[in-house]
Amino acid sequence: MTQNTAPALREGRRRFCLTLLAAPLAGASLLAALPAHGQERRYTIAFANLTEEPGVTLEGTGFTGGEIRSGFALAARKLPVEVLFYDNQRDGKKAQANAEDAIARKVDLYVLYCQDPDANAAIAARLKAAGIPILAVNHPVPGAPLYTVDNLAAGRIAGEALGQFAARSWRGQPTVAVIVGPVEARVDRVPERVQGVVEGLRAKLPGVKPVTLDTQGNPARVGALLGKYLAAHPGAKVLVAATDDTTALAAKSALEQAGRASDAAIASHGVDRTIHGGINDKKEIDPNNRGSIVIGSVAFYMDRYGYDVLPLALRMLRGEPVPPRTATRHLFITAANVFVEYPPYDMN
Amino acid sequence: MRIRSVLGASAVLLLTSASLAFAQTDCKTLVPPSPWGPNDQTGATNRITPAVTKAAAAEIQEGKVVVMSYPLVDGVPLFGSRFTKTILTATSLAPGGAYGENQLTYMEDTWLSQSHVGTHLDGMGHIGRKDCYFNQIAMGKFINQNNMTKLGLEHLKSFATRGVVIDMVKVFQAAGKLKTNAACRKPCLDGGTLITTADLQAGLRMYNVTLREGDIVVIHTGWGDLFEQFPKQNAVYNSAAPGIGKDAAKWLVSQKVVAVGTDTWVVEVIPSEDPKEAFPVHNILLTDNGIHIIENVRTDLIAAEAAATNRATFFFSMTVPKAVGLTGNFVAIEGIR
């Protein structure tokens, strides 16, 4: 932010307000976003991240806040936007302070990623009073469009993939299913993911009764929990739905230690860097590792949020309608499509 | 009997031509034809005519030679699983190993290396779309376990032409948007920095240069400083790169250049503009237009020379071995002023 650009930003926001008033008039919004010479103006968009604390993973996946921030920075390169980054530090008060700073800087739009409903409501009121539109990420903000993961849909994809695998590979053999991970983590909405897995499994294997194994967020518990379960089901084929990729790799290890890897298939959620990666990383999901019992993982694309969220924000700034809820497009990533979805570029 | 033979031969011909037609049709949907005809395997070096070389010679005004390639040595940053290893054979230096009364001794090297290491040229057999390469060539039919039987480096013409250095560090500094990398000892564009058409044009305006057909464009980003710090900064160097995006690549194509080189391992911006695309600028330049990519070019000296003299053009001298069937090779480049 420099003083040179501030008048332009103020003018931009005045135009935005006028645009809202004139929304029913077709074409007015586009005109408002375009300076007289016809080139679109640049916007300043604030992104207040949930947390950028190193090592802290978000939404029950392996993605960090740093990866989300990086995705915004990369996506902004081709767009007429400057992104102003804030770290909410998983703290409602900090989130409110960040919003106040953004108001003072007269940003054009505020992207808010905060889990605290009270803070979200307070921030919404303050930004509304300042005439700054809001776009919410993963957690609702009153009056703001929401961009969010769809845990139920993601779970269904994983459940159906496991069910299809069993129907194709283990037809007629006794099959059990477990869902392992922090299955009760409501703040990350993992129970929705679990529900989706159950629905997906039942759609393909109506007779299966999935059991949940709660690691309470500690992947080191997977071995003991799964080992006990495997010992109780010695002759069965085992479908494992892991709520995240770290849990999936821990489950694979547990199955190998129990000598049951050949009886099992694992589907995961996230597709973080622990499971795909750079050109020389040991990648679990890799065309050269097609024999893995980790048959795939449902992509959450949190490292690419910016590529979805910033275009939505631009549509809002141009006065175009946006849906009240936009969900991440989840996709089952396997050895067959991982290089299409995540072409490796890190050459280390 | 004769009728049966004729019918049989016709059937074989039909099948053969059908399969060829299928492959060609397939590649025609993926790759444009060469402007130099259906048999062209030379690509953009067709643009280096005697007139182009003669005009470029006018750039040699002081006889000053500027090094534009890095030393080839074990330990430099390598892309992916590439490797290089030199082994010296010096057996005749052992006692009693010299030959004749004149005590002749000799040494030689075994150089185990992939071809795309150090300062190197990407040939047109390097990058394709599926199995379709430059000039709609379905390369699946033209490879064996040793090399390619089409699009090898032996088909290239001379690279003796005018070089133009575009100093992106200066452009970004002037625009107040330079974000350097902490590991660079001198100013550099950070990894992931997108170089646009407007940036290239601004760099050309700085030295009042207009590109002309047959030029080779060399872009200085400063990222090469990390290469020079090998092996300490190899991981940083390989993790990302500043570079041109797709629009800038298309603009360079429109300028009918012969090659684009930078002081990075990749020329294009990494991570890519679209995370679901793999090295799209390589496809635009090499696959679609036969324009060569030169990677790990030492650009700092020629950029400094341009800054000191306010002249960004030079005679581009590069040796490319006639390596039959190879997809690329290390090169030596000198900018002569």
Structure explained in plain terms:
Chain A is an alpha/beta fold and 348 residues long. Chain A has 2 domains: 6-149 and 304-317, Rossmann fold, CATH 3.40.50; 151-299 and 334-341, Rossmann fold (3-Layer(aba) Sandwich). In chain A, 39% of the residues lie in helices and 17% in strands. Chain A contains 11 helices and 12 strands. In chain A, the strands form 2 sheets. In chain A, strands 2-1-3-4-5-11 form a 6-stranded parallel β-sheet, with helices on both faces. In chain A, strands 7-6-8-9-10-12 form a 6-stranded mixed β-sheet, with helices on both faces. Chain A is elongated and about 65 Å long. Residues 1-37 of chain A have low confidence and may be disordered. In chain B, α3 crosses α4. Chain B has 337 residues and is of the alpha/beta class. Chain B contains 9 helices and 15 strands. Chain B has 2 domains: 43-78 and 115-130 and 142-336, Glucose Oxidase, domain 1 (3-Layer(bba) Sandwich); 80-113, no CATH class. The interface between A and B is medium-sized, with 17 and 23 residues.
Summary tags:
heterodimer, A: 348 residues, alpha/beta, Rossmann fold, 2 domains, 12 strands, 39% helix, elongated, disordered N terminus, B: 337 residues, Glucose Oxidase, domain 1, 9-stranded mixed β-sheet, two-stranded antiparallel ribbon, 9 helices, 15 strands, 28% helix, globular
Average pLDDT metric of chain A: 89
Side by side, the strands of the main sheet of chain A go: 2-1-3-4-5-11
* Approximate strand percentage of chain B: 15-25%
Number of strands of chain A: 12
The CATH C-level name of the largest domain in chain A is: Alpha Beta
CATH superfamily heading of the largest domain in chain B? Putative cyclase
**Share of helix among residues of chain B?**
25-40%
What does the main sheet of chain A amount to?
6 strands, parallel
Shape of chain A: elongated
Q: What's the helix-strand series of chain A?
A: HHEHEHEHEEHEHEHEHEEHEEH
Query: What does the radius of gyration of chain A come to?
Result: 23 Å
Instruction: Classify the beta-strand content of chain A into a percent band.
Output: 15-25%
What strand line-up does the widest sheet of chain B have? 1-15-13-7-9-11-12-4-14
Number of extended strands of chain B:
15
Model regions low in confidence, pLDDT < 50 over at least 5 residues of chain B? 1-23
The CATH architecture name of the largest domain in chain A reads 3-Layer(aba) Sandwich
N- to C-terminal distance of chain B: 74 Å
